[in-house]
Write a structure and sequence with these properties.
By secondary structure, this protein is of the alpha/beta class. It has 19 helices and 26 strands. It binds fructose -6-phosphate.
């Protein structure tokens, strides 16, 4: 998740650009850079590494320029390096840009620009933007930018400066966040509010399709065609710490609400012509016809995501044995490994000690390794043969929420692609792919249930235990729901296969016991409902999560999920169960972001 800052005004730009980037450090980055501009030219300094490395390079310079742009990059196209860092400039060194997002059609634009003789120096998708603006620049940079915007597909928050108009910063936004701000010293832009708060609390959040022109004395707002737009400014009432929470009370609440966006980001570029695109798999050079077995290996929530992947894979490719395993077991267990084994490691941090040790063991035995991680350049990402990134952004709350749902999304894409490579016909995946495309909206709709979930969470206020039950693909959802409740609310929670209830656990059900039951799997929903009836008969208070197809007349507490593929129910269900755990913890007054005894990244065994 890159960070952007921009300034034009009556004071030197550099102090704001750097402090703003520091405020955005939480987004994660691997390189940083700035361009300062005045009538004499552009001055660009960028480097792989941390902001302190950039500060050192700038330390002995006198840099009074009053306009500039800054960037921290989290590599997506091209490794972290000085050349791939932003800003990117044109060959004449008259235009400079910084960009967040992904230009999906960069390859075709690049091909055309190369034909026109444009020299490319980086491996990034972003570099095409500066050359495209240069291509259209006939003396009016605003016109050139408008023309370039017509060709850019994908997501972008974009800042442009040029020597032709050295007092102006141009900002364009589509599907990547960007705000602008203004004060008596000038105009600002940034990819998040914390970057500007020390300088101004008067901000305007840009909408998709907005083109803002920043000048020292104010901001003009246009659409991409150059038509003026009305401006909606707000005065931010909160301080810096609150701003990093984006107006939410806690990071966990913020991260739960970010899910529609980060799922969209994780899917970006992954569905092309109704098929899954995972070019990274080519680098594996795996002999698919020889594949002997697949292991999904992870810890905690990521392990629950792995159980999902195991079931999805087993359903589509039953002839190849597949197993989800806890990394702490895999690293010491006697599991068959060979060069024809594929081991898939799933982790938010990419630094979990057990998962890293499991990967080392798989490599020692000659297995092929693939990592699904959220943190760029993390240990797993560096060591695995191939890495796929979830694009959840920094997850700060200890309890994993958005990392989990993005793992489910990316694992679905991976399982579909692997199944196709193993000979399963593409038609089998139509429903899954359609559902994936709708998933940001589906999750958005689930978030609208939060008041209802809050009410139901009150049922737990004076309880010490809760039981979660489900069958088939609902099983690992209840395991994850119980884990979430335990870790943030400290309420003891157990998850059981609904059909196993009467083989022991039902002894625990008593008058007032809270049972959270999932019945989203149409073919076994009736069976689960009869298991639930058994708990009700013993006095349980049942919260039922099911689809609109299910008759729920006999239930007082019901939450509905949409009628999507049973294999993807886990995603909307996860959102409801995260909210449930969150509100139960809030009601009990727990520190939801930092539960006792837990660390965000478990780097010890
Ligand atoms: C639970 C949680 C943990 C992590 C586990 C693995 O909410 O966050 O169970 O999922 O410690 O961490 P990563 O995914 O970083 O390997």
């Amino acid at each position: 998740m890159c960070g952007i800052t921009g300034f034009t005004g009556k004071e030197a730009a550099l102090p704001f650009l750097l402090q703003g980037l520091e405020k955005l450090e939480y987004r994660g980055y691997d390189s940083a850079g700035v361009t300062l501009v005045d009538a004499k030219g552009l001055y660009t300094v960028k480097t792989k590494g941390r902001l302190k490395d950039l500060r050192e390079l700038l330390a002995n310079e006198h840099l009074p320029q009053t306009a500039g742009i800054g960037h921290t990059r989290w590599a997506t196209h091209g490794v972290p390096s000085n050349l791939n860092s932003h800003p990117h400039t044109n060959a004449k060194n008259t235009i400079s840009i910084v960009h967040n997002g992904i230009i999906e059609n960069y390859a075709s634009i690049k091909e055309e620009l190369l034909r026109q003789g444009y020299p490319f120096v980086s491996e990034t998708d972003s570099e095409v933007i500066v050359h495209l603006i240069d291509y259209y620049d006939k003396g009016d940079i605003f016109e050139a930018l408008k023309k370039a915007l017509r060709y850019l597909q994908g997501s972008f928050a974009l800042c442009v400066v040029s020597t032709a108009n050295p007092d102006t910063v141009y900002v364009a936004k589509k599907d990547s966040p960007m705000i602008v701000g203004h004060s008596s010293i000038g105009s600002f832009c940034a990819s998040d509010i914390p970057a500007v708060l020390e300088y101004t609390k008067d901000i305007m959040t840009l909408e998709d399709g907005n083109l803002a022109v920043l000048k020292a004395d104010g901001v003009e707002l246009y659409d991409f065609a150059g038509n003026p737009l009305p401006q909606h400014w707000t005065h931010v009432p909160y301080d810096l710490q609150a701003a990093q929470k984006g107006g939410y009370d806690t990071f966990m609440e913020k991260e739960i609400h970010e899910q529609p966006h980060v799922i969209q980001e994780t899917l970006r570029g992954r569905i092309v012509n109704d098929d899954i695109s995972l070019n990274e798999l080519d680098q594996l050079a795996f002999p698919w016809e020889n594949l002997e077995r697949v292991y999904f290996v992870a810890c905690g929530t990521a392990y629950n995501a792995s159980m999902f992947a195991q079931d999805l894979f087993r359903h589509h490719v039953p002839k190849i044995p597949s197993f989800a395993l806890a990394a702490s077991e895999f690293r010491y267990g006697s599991y068959y490994l060979s060069p024809n084994t594929l081991c898939i490691f799933v982790s938010q941090s990419g630094e979990t000690a057990d998962t890293l040790a499991a990967l080392n063991r798989a490599k020692e035995r000659g297995a092929k390794t693939l990592a699904i991680v959220n943190v760029l350049g993390s240990g797993l990402a560096r060591k695995a043969d191939v890495t796929l990134y979830t694009c959840a952004g920094p997850e700060i709350a200890v309890a994993s929420t958005k990392a989990y749902t993005t793992q489910l999304v990316l694992l679905t894409c991976l399982v579909i692609k692997m199944s196709e490579l193993l000979g399963v016909a593409r038609e089998n995946f139509k429903e899954l792919i359609d559902n994936l495309k709708d998933m940001p909206k589906i999750v958005e709709d689930m978030l609208k249930e939060k008041d209802q979930v809050h009410e139901y969470a009150k049922l737990l206020a004076d309880k010490h235990d809760a039981y979660f039950i489900g069958r088939k693909m609902d099983y690992f959802s209840v395991v994850e729901g119980a884990l979430k409740l335990k870790e943030v609310s400290y309420i003891h929670a157990d998850a059981y296969l609904a059909g196993e209830l009467k083989h022991g656990p039902i002894a625990l059900i008593d008058k007032g016991t809270v049972v959270i039951a999932l019945a989203t799997q149409a073919d076994v929903a009736a069976k689960t409902i009869s298991n639930i009836e058994e708990t009700k008969a013993r006095g349980a208070v049942v919260i039922l999560i099911t689809t609109s197809k299910q008759n729920t007349d006999k239930f007082n507490y019901v939450l509905r999920v949409p009628n999507i593929s049973p294999y993807l129910m886990a995603i909307p269900v996860a959102v409801l169960l995260q909210l449930f755990a969150y509100y139960a913890a809030v009601i009990k007054g727990c520190d939801v972001d930092k539960p006792r005894n837990l660390a965000k990244s478990v780097t010890v065994e």
